[in-house]
From TrEMBL:
NCBIfam families: PRK06703.1. Residues 4-146 form the Flavodoxin-like domain. Belongs to the flavodoxin family. This is Flavodoxin I. Low-potential electron donor to a number of redox enzymes. Signal peptide: none annotated. The keyword Flavoprotein applies. Transmembrane segments: none annotated. Keywords: Electron transport, Flavoprotein, FMN, Transport. Its cofactor is FMN.
Length: 162
């Protein structure tokens, strides 16, 4: 069974709510799913290698920038080989800011540069996910992620191949 990690930074719970919704769209009989917050006290990110796919969520802060915990996570990623991992990116922002959900795009680019297989569609929610278009977008990312993941080789096979 392929393993999925839903990992996110959320200060007031909006991004966490997207993560919770995503989990409901994944059949636990088909995939092993873990959902967790970024933990600033443990930035050894080698545990990411235990997962075949990662759904990564972040809110946006300070005029289109990464929030602190996502920035620390990003720096710690330098030593981790994410090639072959399937990754989807989502987040919450506030449409009142000109650089709406910019952190989602920044993380998408970051994962792309690490040779991960990044799903093109991203989820950008204005604050809390309560509109039909939010749910449609979240379902779309989850479905595309699961489809790509199903067609990828498993982490175990990937280790042997390397
Ligand atoms: C100081 C500050 C700066 C922010 N800057 C942005 C921004 O540049 N772009 C954006 O889309 N949202 C911005 N936001 C809004 C948050 O991203 C938004 O409230 C989001 O829903 C928080 O997600 P969370 O509940 O998962 O923490 C900012 C919020 C604060 C408090």
């Amino acid at each position: 069974m392929k393993k999925i990690l839903i990992l996110y930074a959320s200060s007031t719970g909006n991004t966490e709510e997207i993560a919770c919704l995503m989990r409901t769209y994944i059949n636990p009989k088909e995939f092993e799913v873990t959902r967790k917050n970024i933990e600033l006290d443990n930035m050894d990110l080698n545990f990411l290698l235990n997962y075949d796919g990662i759904l990564f969520g972040t809110y946006t802060y300070d005029d289109g920038d990464l929030p602190f915990e996502t920035a620390v996570f990003c720096d710690s990623l330098e030593n981790v080989d994410l090639s072959g991992k399937v990754i989807g990116v989502f987040g919450s922002g506030d449409a009142a800011y000109s650089q709406f959900c910019e952190a989602v795009d920044l993380m998408k680019e970051k994962f792309r540069h690490m040779n991960a297989t990044v799903i093109d569609h991203t989820v950008k929610v204005d604050l809390f996910p309560n509109l039909l278009e939010d749910l449609t977008s979240i379902k779309k990312l989850t479905d595309q992620f699961l489809k790509t993941l199903s067609n990828s080789i498993t982490t175990e096979l990937f280790k042997i191949k390397k």
